[in-house]
Amino acid sequence: MLVDTRAAIDRLLEHGGLSDATRRAYASDLRALEAWLEGRGLELEDVDVRALADWVTDLGSGRTRLAPATIARRLAAARALLRFTYGPARVPDAALAPRRGRRLPDAPKATDVAELLETAEGAKPLELRNRALLELLYSAGLRSAEAVGLDLADVDFERESLHVRGKGSKERVVPLGEEAAYHLARYLREGRPALVRGAVDAVFLSARGRRLDTSTVRRIVRNPHRLRHAFATHLLEGGADLRTIQELLGHASLSTTQVYSHVDARRLRRVYDRSHPRS
Length: 279
Description:
mainly alpha
């Protein structure tokens, strides 16, 4: 039976169990696939490894060619659509995505982070909130969504830890550093009561008393993810092993964390020179 492409896309987006962010990205990617198929007189039923290869070629050529990471995401969206509509057997397993160059995380130095945190100093409720938020992003290596998703019950001052809900509903417990604990406790004591409106469990609140959103975090600090990179890089520089950093970051695969092993080459060289008999 011929499957309507648009209807299949709508079913995936509505019933595919996707996160909000993935749903938004896939919606754009799959509409592009739909337009490409229509332009060539093809139906979803016609999509095989050759059709996907032709699509990837078109995406990576011409004036409007896309970056390798974007092409890889669009290809993942197409495969998700085929899997959801027809089952796993209909998903081509050939490696079609262009190779992505390794890009090292752009992590600020410890002195730069310290200066950033000092600029957030203040005694007003929003200033106290911003300082506590930045401290957590850096000292706990949280993603923006993880930070704004924290509830009061997730903070354990006695055990100096945070309960974090990460990507894919994965949960982890991370240490709550001394500086972060101080500023978080001060915000909860002196800042949050002036912001809260009704029964809201969120740790970080907006000026209107609602749970803070990630767009506000990006207004507070232009690229909050750099603080997460700094967290991992500074841990590595301090001697932490990659497995520990993987657990703290909430990475499902060590290969995701291994990008940081290239960041501090000078420290690794010093360790090698000091430790290896033939260095």
